[in-house]
Structures are given as structure tokens and as C-alpha cells.
Amino acid sequence: MRGFLASSIGVTCAAALALPLAPPAAATSAARPTNGAAVPAEAYVPGSTQSLPLTPTARDRAPGAAEQGVPRRDVRHFSLVGVVWDNPATELHGQVQVRTRATATGTWSGWQELETHNADHAADPDSTESTSGRVRGATAPLWVGESDGVEVRVRAESTPETPGSQTTTADKSADAATHDSADALTTHDSADRNAPNESADAPTTHDSADRNAPHESADRTTHHDSADAPTTEDSADAPTADALTGPGTTTGSTGPGTATGSTGTDRAAGAAPLAASPLPTGMRLELIDPGEGAPPAAAPGPEGGPRTTVTTAESAEALAASAVNAGLAPLGAAEIPALNRAQTEAALLSAGGAGALTAEQRAKPYVGPRPSITTRRGWGANEKLREKKFVYTKKVKAAFVHHSATGNNYTCSQAPSVIRSIYRYHVNSMGWRDVGYNFLVDKCGKIYEGRAGGVSKAVLGAHTMGFNSNSMGIAVLGTYSSKKPSSAAVKAIARLTAWKLGLYGMNPRGKTYLKSGGGNLYRKGKNVRLNVISGHRDGFATSCPGKKLYAKLGTSRSTAAKYQGR
After folding, report:
1. Which among 312, 282, 285 is positioned nearest to 296, based on CA atoms?
2. How remote is the C-alpha of 449 from its chain's centroid?
3. Which one of 127, 161, 510, 519 has the lowest number of neighbouring Cβ atoms within 10 Å?
4. Residue 38 burial by CB count (10 A; 0-12/13-18/19+): exposed, middle or buried?
5. How far is the C-alpha of 335 from the C-alpha of 489, rounded, in Å?
6. What is the mean pLDDT of residues 152-180?
7. Omega before 24 cis (within 30°)?
């Protein structure tokens, strides 16, 4: 895989020079109040991550026990939960359930299940991101709302007893950095996630710091140059996996990820006795507090322009993340404003396009009107969590649609908090360089910028293992295995893809070829023919984006094509 480095120092310095001098902003390292006191509306309180080791239950204290958990306990405030483990190549064959206590009412929820098959949302095998040594295995996160108590249990599924160790995902060789196995509670407060966990009897806190890996240049931009041009090979369209109707659960199963006929009544005579699959090592419960929103917004810009936020005394990372959207919105903007189709076409032609425009594009630029997009600043991203550099691929030939599998119990006003939680989980808990998705969409149809690098650019994501190059990933917040997505969310997918794919000359109703980076459906290096708007399951054997959302992709394709004027 070839690549080249391009400096991002220029945009950062230019952004900094454009700012007026001002006294430093108030310190933001204060801990979240736990005594019920209200946080002032103008205050920005960073989020945090509590990490609790899972231990064998009282019924089975042996190493590699078939059931582990965290007994019911009081904890600091959190709103999103997930379970991680040491080796990202190890699969968790079993059931993960959690129940939480609501801060407002003191009421405990019933048991809720976490999606255990989450490895398909990841960077490509052998990529710099996946082989960093920091990546961990993980369940999908679950949004539970503001809570202050938790209990979790993980039960291994029963399988025929055979010698050997834990099952691992093929072609994944990187071992994740080991969590500290002490019984102490570890807390990461807007912290350097690369710092080693500390063993102690009392909770320890890692204070705010830059998380950038020491082996990577902080001020450089990598261009991920993938040679996956169409070839004469016409492979079959990807399987759609329609039979996968729920999150990781198949017919006749006793828990997530169990195969058909795994129950005792379905076993053939003379079959091997059932034994519990070993659980992954180093399992920890991650409790994410998203913090208190974004920096305060200023008044609307001149002549009704987009709202902007205060950019004085801002970090270089935040300035750089905003500067890559220069030309679309002012520096520090919380929102990139919508344009009509004529304005979008004029902007495309005047800028020369996101890439080199073809003669056909110049004669007839099939591009949808640019939708309004909430920037990373708008949803309150802490830019010090992610790696500094931006990584790009060559172009955007396809869009993969996902569901976040975080559950549907959120309001649209909570969507920024959900996104901040997912961002922190992806980076601090799972070890990724940034949030994996390029864009996120809430149930009200609002579109949010995801991985940093510029919304019109070909930013390399970590959303569809094997097909992150020359594509983008869109996650609809929620779980859509049995619940239908809102019409607003489906329309937002169409609006976003009509614009972004149009910048690169792609027809939303068409087909394209992508070269597989390796996965469980296609071998590495195979050119695969896919829909320009595909579901995650088209590139990887997974239930994502859920049966109900997947069924709506045809509507998104046709609507997006209409927005492009096709």
C-alpha cells in the first residue's frame, strides 16, 4: 500500500493567525458534580471513562470461567456502556447483559443486551490503525442515559467440548495493549489513553493530556493510496445476509452469535458433550460520561450565516479540524450551512470538484444540494482525544450504511451526547485513532460530521472492515434489527449521499468496484462489485445495519439519484 505525507502545519498556522488574541478561557478540568448541583449552561465539562475489570462469578471462580461480571455497585455518572477485552482478534461467543440505575429516579433497569459481534466495524486488516498495538476487542456500545449504578454479566455460550484455546478472527494478528487487571476502578478523565493503567486499591485518575502515539508525526497528513480501480473481473454482488434478523442472533440460539441448532434439543445423538467457550481475557466494563456539551455558541453570523463558537485560546487540534472545512463554513463554525442545488453546482465547478472533474461532470454536474451538517465543534468533540493527523484515501466511490447498535432510547437533543460517547468509546476504549464513521445521522434526520479531515474530502474511516478505502461510512444512531428507521433518517441518508457521492461523480443507483482489504466475505485483493450505496452487510457477514434499515436502502438510492437530477 503506497502513501505519502502532506503537512497540515499550514492550515493550522493559518487558522491560528486568523484568530484575535484573547485571555485564556476558564479551566475546564473540573470534575462533573455528583451532588446534584446544576452545571452552568456556559460551562464546558469534559467527559470521562471509568474502566472496571470483569471477574468470575461466585459460582465459578476458575480462570477462564464461563461466566464473569461486575456485581451491582455505585459508580460515577455515565450514559453509555460497553465491554472491551485484550485481543481484537478474539471473538466473544456468548451473551453480554447490563442493567443500570437511572440518576434521576434511582430506578434500576431490566437486563439489556449488548451486541457482541462488533469486530466488523474496524480498520482494514494490516492497516496502520489496526496494527498499532492499541486496538482492543469490544462489544457495540449501548446508550443507557444518565446513570450512577451498574451491574453486568457475561455468559459464554455452550459449544461441543474440543481441545484448544479461544476462537480468533482470521487474518488478524495484532495483540491489543493489555489492560491492568487490578480490582481497582480506573478512570480516564479526558486523558492520554496511551498511558499505562495503574494498579491501586483506590480509584486512579489519568488527567488531561495529548493522546497521540509517540511513533506518529503529530503535524503530518497521510494520504492512503489504494489501487482498487475497476477491472474486467465481474464478481457476483455481495450476499445480503437477509437471514440475519437481529443483532448477532441466529435461529435456535441461546445467546448472541450462537449457530442454528445450538440448543440441547437440536443436538444429534452421539454429539460431543457441551462445554462453555472460553471468554476473552482482560475483559473490562467501560462506562462513558459524554461530558457537558460543546463550547457556547455565538450569535448567528453576518447576513444570516452559520452560527459560530468562540475560537480564542483553542487547541491546535480543534483549529485544524475546523480549518479543513474552510470554504464551506467560517473557522470555528458549529454548522456547515445547506446550499440549494444551483449553489452547490456553482461551488463544485468553481472549486474544481473534490477531485479532478471529468468532462461529463463539467457539462452536467450530477450533484445533490449540500445538506446542513453539524461539525465536530458543533457536537462538542474533544479534539485532544484523537490522533492529530488526518488520513485520506483517493476518492469516494461508495457509501456504506450502518446502524450504531446503541439502542433507540435517546432523544434528538441527546444525539450530540451519544456521538461524544461513541467517539470516546472508539478512541479511549477500543484504541482507534478517531471515531470510525465519516458521518452520523440521528432519528430526526440531522447530519453530523464524523472522523476529522473535512466533510467534502475522502477521509479514510474505520467502519467496514475490508472496504474502508475509497468509501465512506454513515451510521444512523440507533438499532434497526426490528425497529423501522424514521423517514427523516432515511431522507437524510439520501441527501448526504446525493451531495457527497456527487462530488466524486458517483450515481447513487449505480454499481462500482472496490478492492477488498480482507474480511469474512471476500479475500484480500479481490475486486468486488457493489452498490454505490451499500449496507454494511454487503461487504462483511454481519447483521448491520439491521434488517429494517437495510430494507430502506433502495428508497435512499432512488431519492438520492433524484436529488442529483438523474
Report:
1. 312
2. 12
3. 161
4. exposed
5. 18
6. 54
7. no
